[in-house]
Specification:
Blueprint lengths: L3 E4 L5 H12 L3 E6 L3 H12 L5 E5 L5 H14 L5 E4 L15 H26 L8 E8 L1 H4 L6 H21 L4 E8 L6 H4 L5 H8 L8 H12 L10 E4 L4
Parallel strand pairs: 1-2, 1-4, 2-3, 4-5, 5-6, 6-7
Helix pairs in contact: 1-2, 1-9, 3-4, 4-6
């Protein structure tokens, strides 16, 4: 029987690459998306082409009722998850703190922080050995912004990802005895559509010029790290913040 993965924000970018790689590793995949149904269905179709089950489900992770419905959908269509990847996130656009709007600040934390908590809460209910589960893995997608601070551009985003890092460490200690490992990936700048949609399309090229490895990250770079953390090869790894950032 295949294991099941729920990957949030999996229509495009890091989420899509992770979903497809999970399928290649034999996971049945629940592809979550917020708005782009066409992209999510395309990701699910690519997953299914690898011989696994895949289903797409719309849910705004910032809304707890929609998160609950996402997990209930996964239960019914694929089964309870053994892997949760908290990938859904927003940058909120480049701005100084002085010019930061209430709406951007609230939405950034609602998706990046509250959404990760809502999804983890639902996953724990299903994974925990205390509830009859078989254990599982949670991987949170963080950012090097959490330690760099991103002054003049994304302090609000950086702060939200620092919260995700703290959540990762605390939650790993809380649920480790329940058979659940929790880790995070501090991703560097990855060349995906998010920079275009958030109004800074030139950012990957700018970062490539300063990175020791001379390039921006690829979605596949992050996906490979996620699947390693999900595998038995990392069975003694929990509470870790793994930096995948080309040397930055």
């Amino acid at each position: 029987m295949a294991k099941v993965a729920i990957i949030t924000g999996a229509g495009r970018g890091i989420g899509a690459a992770t979903a497809i790689l999970a399928a290649q590793h034999g996971y049945d995949v629940c592809v979550n998306y917020a708005s782009n149904a066409e992209a999510a269905e395309r990701t699910a179709g690519t997953c299914a082409a690898h011989g696994v089950k895949a289903a797409a489900k719309r849910a705004d992770v910032a809304l707890p009722d929609e998160v609950a419905a996402l997990f209930e959908f996964c239960d019914a269509e694929l089964g309870p998850p053994a892997l949760l990847v908290n990938n859904a996130g927003v940058i909120g656009g480049a701005t100084t703190v002085e010019n930061l709007s209430d709406a951007v600040l609230q939405r950034t934390f609602a998706v990046n922080v509250e959404g990760a908590f809502y999804c983890a809460r639902e996953a724990i209910k299903r994974m925990s050995t205390a509830h009859g589960g078989s254990g599982g893995v949670i991987v949170n997608i963080s950012s090097i912004a959490a330690t760099l601070g991103s002054p003049g551009e994304y302090v609000h985003y950086a702060a939200s990802k620092a919260a995700v890092d703290a959540m990762t460490i605390g939650l790993s200690k809380e649920v480790g005895p329940l058979g659940i490992r929790v880790n995070a990936i501090q991703a560097g700048t990855v060349d995906t559509d998010i920079h275009r949609t958030e109004g800074n399309p030139d950012r990957p090229a700018m970062v490539a010029n300063s990175a020791p490895l001379g390039r921006a990250g690829l979605a596949q770079d992050i996906a490979e790290a996620v699947l390693w953390l999900a595998s038995g090869k990392s069975s003694y790894t929990t509470g870790s913040i793994v930096r995948i950032a080309g040397g930055l």
